[in-house]
Amino acid sequence: MSITKLLNTNHVRWMDAEGVLESDIVISSRVRLARNLDKVPFPHLLNNESGQESLKAIKEAWEKSNYEGLKQLDLLTFDQIGDLDRQILVEKHLISPNHAGSSDGFRGLMVNCSGSMAIMINEEDHLRIQCLLPGLQLEECFKEVIKLDDAFEETLDFAFDDRRGYLTSCPTNVGTGMRASMMLHLPALSISGQAAYIFQNISQLGMTVRGLYGEGTEAQGNFFQLSNQVTLGQTEEDINSNLIAITEQIVEQERLLRTKLISEMKYQLEDRVGRAYGILTNARLITSKEALALLSDVRLGADAGIIKNIKIEGLNELVVAIRPAHLQKKVGREMDATQRDVERAAVIKEKLLASQGING
């Protein structure tokens, strides 16, 4: 089963950076469509009976579909897995923190074996269809979610208004029901102090910037999630093209600032990267927040050629492997904060040294 495999590995598709456009700065691209069944209460109004009816309709559409991409997904309801496994799915960006908070049998997830395609069932909307790919691949994500959307719509009637478009639980998603986002690593913008200025200007263009896990989370480790704010009055193509254009401008600015750092602050940058690597490979305990900040510096050093033989894919994996649920899954028991900090330090040291062929 795809979900069982995903629960027992650190790796998912969006971590594969090699040979992918702009993957040194653009960690991942995501497109998500919100869809609701017609004449069925929105998920926050569901009880067990109506919830099971909505799940049954979705499951029947999945089973009847001839589209191979939909048939390749596995379905799991949340009464089949515990709190820890649901949190692991959050840490891999496959479900939302809000979705993970429920163990209802009518809420669940459909996902493929690589984690690139995932559908949240009865989260804020009946269906949230997501494609998540590495690097700058927003158009590819859009093509994949539209195929899944079309496959469902062959059987299901979605809540749709001729004037307003697709109807959703949150008014900001009404219209296309689409959210497109990029996960970006922007250390040079942060170091130079220009990040806040650029993000303020972006908000005036209908975009929003959030942390690593989206709405309600703070930016850590110089990782930022850039996404559209408006879905009504714009086409899907408009949303995608605007986000790609803004992302390309940010990438260009980040590259210019990295070049400036290397040319004007070579020794300071090398010292910063070296100190980060030294702490990460020698620390006995480390918090998640400190680890992400130091991994950001090491990643910048790897991109700039200051540190050799460290693959970006491995650093992407580490960002997830050091999260609390993954650490507890690895050791097979619940840990307090200090125990997690100790285990996190050990995991980071092992992974970094192994990537360079060094025995810890």
User: What is the overall pLDDT average?
Assistant: 93
- Whole-number count of domains: 2
User: How much strand?
Assistant: 5-15%
CATH class of the largest domain: Alpha Beta
Instruction: Write the CATH architecture name of the largest domain.
Output: 2-Layer Sandwich
**Percentage of residues in helical conformation:** 40-55%
Total beta strands: 10
Total helices: the number is 14
Please describe the biggest sheet, giving its number of strands, its sense, and whether it closes into a barrel: 8 strands, antiparallel
In quaternary terms, these chains amount to single chain
Rg: 21 Å
The main sheet orders its strands as 2-3-4-5-1-8-10-9
Distance between the terminal alpha carbons, to the nearest Å? 34 Å
Overall body shape: globular
Structural class label: alpha+beta
CATH superfamily of the largest domain: Glutamine synthetase/guanido kinase, catalytic domain
Task: Kindly describe this structure.
The protein is of the alpha+beta class. It has two domains: about 1-180, 2-Layer Sandwich (Creatine Kinase, Chain A, domain 2); about 265-355, no CATH class. It is about 45% helix and about 15% strand. The strands form two sheets. The protein has an eight-stranded antiparallel beta sheet, with helices on one face. Strands 6-7 form a two-stranded antiparallel sheet. A hairpin with a 3-residue loop joins strand 6 (about 160) and strand 7 (about 165). Helix 4 (about 85-90) packs across helix 13, helix 10 crosses helix 11 (about 290-305) and helix 12 (about 310-320) packs antiparallel against helix 14. The longest helix is centred in the C-terminal third of the chain and has 29 residues, at about 235-265. The radius of gyration is 21 Å and the shape is globular. The two termini are about 35 Å apart. The model has no long low-confidence stretch (mean pLDDT about 95).
